[in-house]
Design a protein that fits this description.
Elements (H helix, E strand, L loop, with lengths): L14 E6 L4 E3 L5 E3 H5 L5 E7 L4 H16 L7 E7 L6 H11 L5 E2 L5 H9 L11 E5 L4 E4 L6 H7 L19 E8 L8 E8 L7 E2 H5 L4 E4 L10 E8 L9 H12 L7 H7 L9 H11 L13 E4 L2 E3 L7 E10 L5
Parallel strand pairs: 4-5, 5-6, 9-16
Antiparallel strand pairs: 1-8, 2-3, 4-7, 7-8, 9-12, 10-11, 10-13, 13-15, 14-16
Helix pairs in contact: 7-9
């Protein structure tokens, strides 16, 4: 899943260097002191450095994405920490505090009076990789090695390559712990028809809350660990798919009307589970004349949604229970069905 940012954010392929990050000490806008090595790297944390200034338009645009990534990687509680450093002598800690308040940023940041500008200088020098102005990101592994000048699409994989996991089993150990299970999504989607949006939702089997939009939390990555800081343990956890799109697309045709009519008349009954699902336009579990009428209206453009809040896509199975296999990986296989397409 691509992150679309302004042209200010387009960077070249990442570049690594044998140079180690120099130590620094800053006082953040909350008055807390951070020593790069003693407080973070030596404690097994990977540190993400963000160079910015408070009135920088692309920095403002990037702020929500950075905050989401910060939360995804444990919000500084485990083996990843984020620190933003202003490059300007005109940005005080008070200015950084206001920036954080205005743009929903919760990770530490330092202005000139907190030592931010001095700490940022080495990452502007080109020692660790290209510097194209703000915002610029640098990722420092616990051993002090630095990666800078990378594509934002590679952000998560570079952090993971340092051994970080973003949860309590991290501390630079790398990979899963034996107390979580990794789940991978595998969806069978017709090549001729694709939903406009797909969500994988984690929720309790018999309740509507809490719910977790997995791809939103993982940044589009099709795997996740459970239980984890992002996905707390719950009773009877299940995954459901929410897929959306136009009620009629290029795969739903008058021929489907003929097939449904033959089924209703008993001339050519459906034999596949997906056919029964695709022909049930009001989700009552039955296929009757009113389903045929609904499809006719949809093909003529007379309706824009199906009855009873029936979605334009459903899945087989409707949900999958999460079974635990600590330390292992389990595939979650869904088949997505376009409602109306019975072929």
């Amino acid at each position: 899943m691509k992150l679309l940012l302004s042209n200010f954010f387009i960077l070249c392929s990442f570049f690594t260097s044998a140079q180690m990050a120099p130590d620094f000490q800053i006082t953040d806008s909350d008055g807390l002191v951070h020593n790069l090595y003693a407080d973070h790297l030596d404690q097994g944390q990977t540190v993400v450095i963000k160079l910015f200034f408070t009135n920088c338009p692309p920095c403002i645009q990037l702020a929500p994405w950075m905050e989401e990534k910060y939360q995804n990687w444990g919000a500084g509680q485990y083996d990843v920490e984020f620190i933003e450093l202003s490059i300007l002598s005109s940005d005080s800690n008070a200015d950084v505090a206001q920036f954080k308040l205005d743009h929903g940023v919760t990770f530490p940041g330092a202005g000139f009076d907190g030592g931010g500008k001095d700490a940022a200088e080495v990452y502007k020098s080109g020692i660790f990789g290209p510097y194209f102005g703000t915002p610029t990101l640098a990722i420092i592994a616990p051993n002090g090695s630095v990666t800078q000048g990378f594509s934002y699409d590679d952000f998560d994989s570079i952090i993971a390559a340092t051994g970080a996991t973003g949860n309590s089993g991290g501390n630079g150990g790398g990979g899963m712990t034996d107390e979580v299970t990794m789940y991978n999504f595998s969806s069978n989607i017709p090549t001729t028809s694709v939903p406009t949006d797909i969500k994988y939702i984690l929720k309790p089997a018999n309740a509507d809350s809490p719910t977790y939009d997995i791809l939103s939390i993982t940044g589009g990555v099709l795997n996740f660990e459970y239980p984890s800081i992002d996905f707390p343990e719950m009773t009877d956890p299940v995954i459901v798919v929410e897929a959306s799109g136009d009620i009629v697309d290029n795969t739903v045709k008058p021929h489907d009307l003929v097939q449904i009519r033959k089924h209703i008349l008993g001339l050519e009954p459906f034999t596949e589970e997906y056919q029964f699902l695709a022909a049930d336009f009001n989700s009552d579990g039955l296929i009757k004349a009113h389903d045929l009428l609904t499809l006719q209206k949809a093909l003529l453009g007379l309706i824009s949604e199906f009855p009873n809040e029936t979605p334009s896509w459903k899945s087989i199975p409707a949900q999958i229970s999460l079974t635990q296999s600590f330390g292992n990986t389990i595939d979650l296989d869904f088949q997505l069905i376009k409602i109306g397409n019975v072929d």
